Amino acid sequence: MMNIPLCIPNIDEEEISLVTDVLESGWLAHGPKTKEFESEFAKYMGVKYASSMNSCTSALQLTIEALGLEGEIIVPSFTFSASANSIINAGCKVVFGEIDYETCNIDPGKIEELITDKTVGIMPVHFAGQSCNMDEIMEIARRHDLAVIEDSAETIGGEYGGKKVGTFGIGCYSFFPTKNMTTGEGGMITTDDDEIAGKINVLKAHGMSSSTYEREKKERPWLRASIEAGYNFRMCDVLSAIGIVQLKKLDKMNDLRREHASYLNKYLGDIEAIETPVEIDKAKHVYQMYTIKLDTRKISRTNFISKLRKDGIGANVHFDPPVHIQPFYQSLGWKKGDLPVTEKVSESIVTLPMYPQLRKSELDHIIDGVKKAVG
Predict the structure, then answer these.
(1) pTM of the model
(2) What is the spatial order of strands in the sheet that 170-174 belongs to?
């Protein structure tokens, strides 16, 4: 039987070779490869600064702290809990915003009604590879003097209006193995702001203003002084080496994802009980996930996914339950019924396999499997 997992990272001999070079160099952490990766990522995104991190979660939290935000931050509930958790861990309050049914991204038309005198920021989460409507979000932010922290974990290389996602506000990215490019674990922050970039680099490295690699070149490299009570949120050179190669392949990998999604849309789009993903005007969707919505009045999602899995198709769900009805956030006063569109999507969405290496025979097997599961 054909076996198609939900996702497979695209790693080959070039990544393995560069990692081997790093291991043999003896400089495994916070060294030249990390500097190179940051420089190349900033160049790719078209920004002044990129600062590597140990995760996107750390990136989100550190950005809030570097901005000095204290108050309420608006974020969609239809996301992985890390988005909201980072707000809490940075000492701010989460305010969940409703999503647009079609895109599953935060609905700009519902943001302004949530803004109070305590609101300090908006955290748009670019879902599954497609940008939020950044024109409207940035206009709202300008009008109310709010920070914009983009959770771009799922949309690396995606675009809106010809501009890379994550470069409208301060961008935070994930390199988890399921993402469009990977380092195993890891993340990145991008910004054009000199002051914020400096604060981020201090806070991520125990509050020290210079790295081990930079100090090694000085007359007294042993001098280490913390100017802030920082964290160890850094990325090591071994992972950065993987990132350097993955970044070179990113556009090609994203193009393949787009081709696969187009093929699936063509043959799944005419099934009455299924809604396939859409690409909004001005956006370049890079399909970190390929998600469909079921008409749950006609199809049991649990049975549907069970049939796909029995057929060797690694289907899953992202995201159920949405964050606002997870136990911790219910303890803060959120409850089922607060976000009806979010809850409707959460109860009907299904994630199908998506990765660059998918072959036509595997795409055809997914299509056939979906049709059989629908019945």
Answers:
(1) 0.95
(2) 49-53, 187-191, 170-174, 147-151, 119-122, 72-76, 93-97
